[in-house]
């Protein structure tokens, strides 16, 4: 049975072949990519062993430790994204952690922190957040930032907690008490 959808028609025309996202074949030789299509909303966590392409909207988290997460031009991820590689052409509102590479393409928007050894930010991309390219800080985007519980080395002061101490006003004058 051959089913055609409006989405499939938009991907390919007789004059122009469909653009495809590169994905790895599985051991069985079958494409392991899952597509969240236009108009689809997923709320919760997406996990798995295949590549995922987001064309609709995902709210929550995407965890694909050894795979590729692609946020297409029409895609919106209001989620933390963790994958081997992350390719953003749409919009991400959340942190991104990648084992290898994050690509933020022209006209895309990322509002969140990016943590990966390699980051590519194309001219015309919109980005608000921080970039950390140090491997020692790599963690799942869904995990909260944790402070190290290691003891301080001798002679060092313990980590500060609570609110900062009040700043002294250099213009204030004090007279010594007699």
Description of the structure:
This protein is mainly β. It has a domain at 26-127. Helices cover 3% and strands 39% of the residues. It has 1 helix and 12 strands. Strands 1, 2, 3, 4, 5, 6, 7, 8, 9, 10, 11 and 12 form a 12-stranded parallel β-sheet that branches. Mean pLDDT is 75; it is low at 1-27, 144-170 and 172-176.
Summarize this structure briefly.
The chain has one helix at residues 6-11; strands at residues 33-36, 41-47, 51-54, 57-71, 76-88, 91-93, 96-104, 109-111, 114-115, 118-121, 126-128, 131-132.
Summarize the SSE layout with pairings.
Elements: H1 6-11, E1 33-36, E2 41-47, E3 51-54, E4 57-71, E5 76-88, E6 91-93, E7 96-104, E8 109-111, E9 114-115, E10 118-121, E11 126-128, E12 131-132
Question: How would you describe the shape?
Answer: globular
Structural class: mainly beta
Order of helices and strands: HEEEEEEEEEEEE
> How large a portion of the residues is in β-strands, by DSSP E?
35-45%
Unreliable residue stretches: 1-27, 144-170, 172-176
- How many helix segments? 1
Radius of gyration: 23 Å
| Overall number of strands | 12
**Average of the residue pLDDT scores:** 75
Main sheet makeup = 12 strands, parallel
Could you tell me how far the N terminus lies from the C terminus, measured between alpha carbons in angstroms?
A: 98 Å
**What proportion of the residues is helical, as a percent range?**
under 10%
